[in-house]
Amino acid sequence: MKPLQNKRGEVPIASAIAIVLFAMVIAMALYIAYVYAQTTAVRNAMNKGLSNLAVTISEDTYAALRESDFEAYAEKLTGSSAYRRELENKYRQDVLGAVELDSDKYRIDNIRLDFEVNGKKITYTCTCDVVFYAAVFGNTVPAAANSLSVSGAHTAKYGR
User: Fold this and answer.
1) Selection from 84, 54, 58 nearest residue 159 by Cα
2) End-to-end CA, the chain
3) Buried-state track 21-43, b at ≥16 Cβ within 10 A, e below 16
4) Segment among 17-21, 22-26, 103-107 with least mean pLDDT
5) Mean pLDDT of 1-21
6) What angle do CA 19, 22, 25 make, to 5 degrees?
7) Is the Cα dihedral 27, 31, 36, 40 positive or negative?
8) Whole-angstrom distance, CA of residue 42 vs CA of residue 152
9) In the predicted model, what is the mean pLDDT of the chain?
10) Is pLDDT above 60 for 30?
């Protein structure tokens, strides 16, 4: 390959291309590490919110079992009710207290809580989508999207 020649010295084209490619690989690796770290932070915030939600559900389950009204509580939890909306709002506030839901780097969308009752076991699952953005030539474009899911469960042990 014929080197470029000028008054300052010689730089082979292959070396210049290798330097640019190396810089691009390093930048991509750093961005992937950033996405992984932010995804972990969002997942940890979701787990914290789920833990707080589990305490509330556990207390309400215990009260429902003491009153022999567990089936009505399960229906209230799994159906469309004001109680369920209250739990979902509390969960969103807990997650919002730990991480931002919308920033110039990422956006958390479609936060959903699902509850399932099998006997006296209550399973709760939260899913959401996280879209990461990158600045390219002055424009912000979606660069990566991850779907996250965390779940927990507890078994109601006391009552009638």
Assistant:
1) 58
2) 85
3) eeeeeeeeeeeeeebeebbeebb
4) 103-107
5) 73
6) 155
7) positive
8) 16
9) 82
10) yes
CB neighbours (10 Å) of residue 95? 23
Domain span including residue 38:
12-155
SS3 100: coil
Structural domain tally of the chain? 1
DSSP 159: -
- Amino acid found at 76: K
| pLDDT number for residue 2 | 55
Does 6 map to a domain?
no
Q: How far apart are the C-alpha atoms of 140 and 131, rounded to whole Å?
A: 12
- 105-145 confidence digits (pLDDT tens): 888 888 888 888 888 788 889 988 999 888 878 888 888 88
The per-residue DSSP string of 28-83 comes to HHHHHHHHHHHHHHHHHHHHHHHHHHHHHHHHHHHHHHHTT-HHHHHHHHHSS-HH
Q: Residue 112 is encoded by which pair of tokens?
A: 């959903």
The DSSP letter of residue 80 is S
Helix (H, G, I), strand (E, B) or coil at 21: helix
Nearest to 126 by CA among 34, 45, 41, 35: 45
